[in-house]
Amino acid sequence: MAATMKKAVEKLRHRAVRGPKVTQLVRSRAGVQTQAAEDVNVTFEDQQKINKFARNTSRITELKEEIEVKKKQLQNLEDACDDIMLADDDCLMIPYQIGDVFISHSQEETQEMLEEAKKNLQEEIDALESRVESIQRVLADLKVQLYAKFGSNINLEADES
To answer: Mean pLDDT in the chain?
Structure first.
């Protein structure tokens, strides 16, 4: 996904330096041919929009990966809560890791600490998802602007490979 955006940015950056003419690929029976498309000037503002689009696309990918890591951590906390609830011995002291140190707590205290950790982690996940949504709105706006100017001469869709 990010590789396609980088390629598109590099092509447009190269064309902006080379000149105003943008080319497009046309498929024919003989293969792929390059043909001159309509003259489209790539202005500095257009280049800034393309760069912003690429940066935001990359940032969304990073945020989604971070969300997945936090969701796995949340699942681990939920599994720990379930395991503690299934424990029969109420007098059992359960080690709880704080930093690099394990501190033994009662089953009830450990359960409360795990619930608090789950709550905090869920708040972090919600904040990250909110940031992703706001960036997606910016990307949608940029797509509209860039497609309006460049039409089929620019590809802003993500590669799903």
So the answer is: 81
Structure tokens at 57: 């696309």
DSSP string, 50-85: HHHHHHHHHHHHHHHHHHHHHHHHHHHHHHHHHHHH
Pick the range with the lowest mean pLDDT from 4-8, 21-25, 111-115: 21-25
| Angle value at C-alpha 8, between 44 and 148, nearest 5 degrees | 60
Query: What is the helix (H) or strand (E) element at residue 28, kind and residue range?
Result: strand 21-28
The maximal CA–CA distance of the chain, rounded, in angstroms, is: 80
CB 84 within 8 A of CB 110: yes
- Sign of the CA dihedral with 105 first, then 109, 112, and 116 last: negative
CA distance 91 to 88: 9
Residue 125 near residue 66, CB atoms below 8 Å = no
Predicted confidence (pLDDT) per residue in 91-100, tens digit: 778 888 888 9
Residue 159 DSSP code:
P
Looking at the DSSP assignment, which residues form a beta bridge with residue 97? 102
Question: Position of tokens 């904040």?
Answer: 127
